[in-house]
TrEMBL record:
<dbReference type="Pfam" id="PF02358">
    <property type="entry name" value="Trehalose_PPase"/>
</dbReference>
<comment type="pathway">
    <text>Glycan biosynthesis; trehalose biosynthesis.</text>
</comment>
<dbReference type="GO" id="GO:0005992">
    <property type="term" value="P:trehalose biosynthetic process"/>
</dbReference>
<comment type="function">
    <text>Removes the phosphate from trehalose 6-phosphate to produce free trehalose. Trehalose accumulation in plant may improve abiotic stress tolerance.</text>
</comment>
<keyword id="KW-0378">Hydrolase</keyword>
<dbReference type="GO" id="GO:0004805">
    <property type="term" value="F:trehalose-phosphatase activity"/>
</dbReference>
<comment type="similarity">
    <text>Belongs to the trehalose phosphatase family.</text>
</comment>
<dbReference type="InterPro" id="IPR023214">
    <property type="entry name" value="HAD_sf"/>
</dbReference>
<dbReference type="InterPro" id="IPR036412">
    <property type="entry name" value="HAD-like_sf"/>
</dbReference>
<dbReference type="InterPro" id="IPR044651">
    <property type="entry name" value="OTSB-like"/>
</dbReference>
<keyword id="KW-0346">Stress response</keyword>
<dbReference type="InterPro" id="IPR003337">
    <property type="entry name" value="Trehalose_PPase"/>
</dbReference>
<protein>
    <recommendedName>
        <fullName>Trehalose 6-phosphate phosphatase</fullName>
        <ecNumber>3.1.3.12</ecNumber>
    </recommendedName>
</protein>
Length: 353
């Protein structure tokens, strides 16, 4: 099953339309023992406003966490414009001391990577493309695509996204990259192999043949008034309780429904490093750039390995395991262009020796 999106928004009268349609298909993810709820024509489950009103007084619990805690978590990972401005004014300076700009620290970063193979890992939404109201229109610019193409010519480069692999490939359209979709549950290497690969191409591509691991469903609430988030969370969790083998997590103005398996972007990073032949090497320097809470799993892995570093893309201070920061995709492109230029100069210098 591939990843599907559900986009939720307020109506013109600013009243949330409380009928979410969740796309489902026949999948072994769902418990065979649990009876599935009735599916409407076209393969959708509809939750009506009337049903929601009947649920509002219930104390829905999932994994010991009440709905209010989920709303608090949604707010923390998806700050509003007003909250963002307040955070910038109050905590930006001290936060930047802990997570300095990767552009300002570029020379130090290069010095730390000397004698090691740099391996690049990039999130897509909010990192290579801007965050937009319609997730199906999160296009990357031609200049960003050209920069990533040049980057892949200098270093092994992977896109690690919450989107399904096919969807993110349609956005990026670069065959020379590694693609890890659905938070790393679906991984495939370059179409024509890679000059950097030490491991087996079959080993990399086999990750996408594991059946149950090709599913992730996202509920985007970028257009929903913050006052309606609790109702939205209640509605989504009312659907989720029908499927005990699925779990709910949240990212940047998105709720994500995934299988209850121990796999995330951090494990995807480790899998790719192992497949490339760098599992137990001291001469590898992984760099992971991402903007979302789900990228924290990869940042934590790099800290635990004591190799490379993570870069958080954010204009607002937030708790993170990343070492450095960049404010927006434009700065990400600047950083990647500097890496490419440094590598090319380094190669030219070696050729003259």
């Amino acid at each position: 099953m591939t990843k599907q999106n559900v986009v939720v928004s307020d109506t013109d009268s600013q009243i949330l339309n409380m009928a979410i349609s969740v796309a489902v298909s026949n999948s072994t993810i769902f418990s065979a023992a649990a009876e599935r709820p009735p599916i409407a024509p076209g393969g959708y489950i509809s939750i009506s406003r009337k049903r929601l009103m009947n649920l509002k007084n219930l104390d829905i619990i999932n994994g010991g966490e009440r709905i209010t805690s989920w709303v608090d978590s949604m707010k923390a990972s998806s700050p509003t414009h007003i909250q963002s401005t307040t955070c910038l004014m109050k905590g930006q300076s001290s936060w930047m001391l802990q997570h300095p700009s990767a552009l300002d620290m570029f020379e130090q970063i290069i010095e730390a990577s000397q004698g090691k193979q740099i391996v690049m890992f990039l999130d897509y939404d909010g990192t290579l493309s801007p965050i937009v109201e319609d997730p199906d229109r999160a296009f990357m610019s031609d200049s960003m695509r050209n920069t990533v193409k040049k980057l892949a010519g200098c270093f092994p480069t992977a896109i690690v996204s919450g989107r399904c692999r096919d969807k993110v490939y349609k956005f990026v359209r670069l065959a020379e990259l590694y693609y890890a979709g659905s938070h790393g549950m679906d991984i495939k290497g370059p179409a024509k192999g890679s000059k950097y690969k030490k491991g087996s191409q079959d080993q990399i591509n086999s990750r996408s043949k594991s059946g149950e691991q090709q599913f992730c469903l996202s509920v985007h609430f970028r257009c929903v008034d913050e006052k309606k988030w609790s109702e939205l969370a209640l509605q989504v969790k009312s659907v989720l309780k029908e499927y005990p083998k699925l779990r709910l997590s949240q990212g940047r103005k998105v709720l994500e429904i995934r299988p209850t398996i121990k796999w995330d972007k951090g494990k995807a990073l480790e899998f790719l490093l192992e497949s490339l032949g760098y599992a137990n090497c001291n001469d590898v320097f992984p760099v992971y750039i991402g903007d979302d809470r789900t990228d924290e799993d990869a940042f934590k892995v790099l800290r635990e390995r004591g190799q490379g570093f993570g870069i958080l893309v954010s204009k607002t201070p937030k708790e993170t395991s990343a070492t450095y920061s960049l404010q927006e995709p434009a700065e990400v492109m600047d950083f990647l262009q500097r890496l490419v230029e440094w590598k090319r100069q380094s190669v030219r210098g070696q050729a003259l020796l």
